[in-house]
């Protein structure tokens, strides 16, 4: 395996599934728990402004999650578990704007994002469509490579 090899389709999809599961549970908690707490503590109906705020927070969560993770560390929780990192094509970390745009595109165009992942199968650097557009690559981390190459 070459140094910092490019991540394949399965690693990327399974990491994405982990992130989707985590976001689903978190969004569910954000959209229900504050309103339940309001009703229990204040013993009165939840006002519309509070419900709207909770709904907006739950809706913005996926964008904030992917943007912050890719910008700050290059890794979401799923990426971390499967030993992959998102970086610019030149190996540098993503800027906030690039991470935010990549995240927004992925969320708004999810079906195209998933279809574009198939390009990983024939691209020499395993880039999906969105990697080409945002000039990113997904690599295995050095730690993940070392763990896979050690005998059991």
Kindly state the number of beta strands. Answer: 2
State the secondary-structure class.
mainly alpha
Overall average pLDDT: 90
The Rg value, from CA coordinates, equals: 18 Å
In DSSP terms (H or I, runs of 4 or more residues), the helix count works out at 7
* N to C succession of SSEs: HHHEHHHEH
- First-residue to last-residue Cα separation: 18 Å
Shape: elongated
Strand line-up in the sheet with most strands? 1-2
Strand content: 5-15%
Helix percentage = 55-70%
Q: Looking at the chains present, what oligomeric state does this protein adopt?
A: single chain
Main pleated-sheet profile? 2 strands, antiparallel
Notes on the protein architecture:
This protein has 7 helices and 2 strands. Helix content is 64%, strand content 7%. It has a domain at 9-23 and 63-149. The protein is mostly helical and 152 residues long. It starts with 8 loop residues before the first helix and ends with a helix.
Topology:
Blueprint lengths: L8 H34 L5 H25 L4 H5 L2 E5 L7 H13 L1 H7 L12 H6 L1 E5 L1 H8 L3
Antiparallel strand pairs: 1-2
Helix pairs in contact: 1-2, 2-4
Characterize this entry briefly.
This protein has 152 residues and is mainly α.
């Amino acid at each position: 395996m070459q140094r910092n090899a490019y991540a394949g389709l399965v690693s990327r999809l399974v990491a994405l599934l982990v992130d989707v599961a985590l976001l689903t549970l978190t969004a569910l908690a954000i959209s229900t728990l504050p309103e339940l707490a309001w009703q229990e503590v204040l013993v009165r109906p939840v006002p519309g402004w509070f419900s709207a705020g909770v709904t907006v927070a739950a809706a913005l969560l996926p964008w904030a999650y992917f943007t912050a993770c890719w910008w700050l560390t290059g890794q979401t929780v799923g990426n971390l578990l499967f030993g992959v990192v998102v970086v610019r094509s030149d190996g540098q970390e993503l800027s906030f704007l690039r991470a935010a745009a990549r995240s927004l595109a992925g969320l708004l165009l999810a079906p195209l994002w998933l279809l574009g992942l198939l390009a990983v199968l024939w691209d020499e650097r395993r880039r999906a469509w969105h990697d080409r557009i945002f000039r990113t690559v997904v690599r295995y981390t050095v730690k993940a490579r070392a763990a896979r190459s050690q005998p059991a």
